[in-house]
Amino acid sequence: xxxxxxxxxxxxxxxxxxxxxxxxxxxxxxxxxxxxxxxxxxxxxxxxxxxxxxxxxxxxxxxxxxxxxxxxxxxxxxxxxxxxxxxxxxxxxxxxxxxxxxxxxxxxxxxxxxxxxxxxxxxxxxxxxxxxxxxxxxxxxxxxxxxxxxxxxxxxxxxxxxxxxxxxxxxxxxxxxxxxxxxxxxxxxxxxxxxxxxxxxxxxxxxxxxxxxxxx
Length: 216
Ligand SMILES: O=C(O)CCC(=O)C(=O)O
Ligand SMILES: [Fe+2]
Known about the structure:
- By secondary structure, the protein is an alpha+beta fold.
- It has two domains: 3-168, q2cbj1_9rhob like domain (Jelly Rolls), CATH 2.60.120; 173-213.
- The protein is built from five helices and 16 strands.
- The strands form four sheets. Strands 1-13-9-16-5-4-2 form a seven-stranded antiparallel β-sheet.
- Helix 4 runs antiparallel to helix 5.
- The two termini are 21 Å apart.
- The model has no long low-confidence stretch (mean pLDDT 97).
- The structure holds 2-oxoglutaric acid (AKG) and fe (ii) ion.
- 2-oxoglutaric acid (AKG) is lined by residues 81, 89, 94, 108, 122, 149, 151, 161, 163.
């Protein structure tokens, strides 16, 4: 399950954040690249602790869809990536363990308006082929960390994005998808019909599956 959630952060907040980001000193992205990824990583990054990262991470952590889809146990290496014109991040795998935290999900939160730069698509490969995203500012893409992926070269302008990884209480993508679907069905039933007997059954199954599978 790859989830595209729209408008997690409003455009006004993002405009203030971008102004602040322009004043920060970014480090070379190679600082956090593994030995293979360093062959293909050409970007810049701003790492935690930093108040901008703190603020954005708090918003993501509080978002109901992020919570329901990721069932987070821990967040790790949340940082701002910056790609100026000509920069890219070629095909790579993210490390399975970052400081002892297992990376079950990756996310990218778009911080730049999609029409303010050219190129810079995030491309994810699976056995059926490739899919690419140029996220609108404020949108987040949440995806299992199991795929080869890349960021295409930015050919004009600058692409800022918040990226990071999540260790989930539900290790398997299939478990997360089942719990997420059930959660969404439960919510829809409650919103449309109230606390019906069907809602209670969905809720019972959701909570019991979570209890059965969740590990921290
Ligand atoms: O900038 C992005 O959207 C993703 C970057 C990425 O793949 C990474 O930092 O490992
Ligand atoms: Fe990556």
